[in-house]
Amino acid sequence: MANSEENPQVPAAALRAATAFVAAHGQPSRAVVEAIGRAGARVVLVGEDGSMGDVVVPSTEVGAALVEQVEGLEQTEWDRETVAATRIGAGHRAKMAARARG
């Protein structure tokens, strides 16, 4: 079973998570694919309602393939529109602060 960069295999769990995110947070949802070193790539999801989520995949190529396979998900960058669409609530801020405190 060859796994080429032209036709990367998207993990089923990542596909389920991204599809569920779009279903829960509306269309169109945005996806920013970011390399995170040896761990692969992080696909940051921003829902139509401004909610954020993420999925970690083996590479940026797999991240791009994931975005292509999920209806209602559009690949973008951290441009003005994407940043403006993001709504960070108190719960998310508390969660991230807890991670920073260790």
Task: Walk me through what this model shows.
By secondary structure, the protein is an alpha+beta fold. It has one domain (12-101). Helix content is 41%, strand content 22%. The chain has four helices and four strands. It has helices spanning 12-25, 60-69, 80-85, 90-101; strands at residues 29-35, 41-46, 52-57, 73-75. The chain has a four-stranded mixed sheet, covered by helices on one side. It is globular. The N and C termini lie far apart (41 Å).
Distance between the termini: 41 Å
> What are the secondary-structure elements, in order, as H or E?
HEEEHEHH
DSSP helical segment count: 4
Write down the overall geometry: globular
Question: By helix and strand content, what is the structural category?
Answer: alpha+beta
Identify low-pLDDT runs.
none
List the helices and strands and how they pair.
Layout: H1 12-25, E1 29-35, E2 41-46, E3 52-57, H2 60-69, E4 73-75, H3 80-85, H4 90-101
Parallel strand pairs: 1-4
Antiparallel strand pairs: 1-2, 2-3
Task: Give a brief description.
The chain is an alpha+beta fold and 102 residues long. The chain has helices at 12-25, 60-69, 80-85, 90-101, and strands at residues 29-35, 41-46, 52-57, 73-75. Strands 3-2-1-4 form a 4-stranded mixed beta sheet, with helices on one face.
Using brief descriptors, characterize the structure shown:
102 residues; alpha+beta; four-stranded mixed sheet; 4 helices; 4 strands; 41% helix; 22% strand
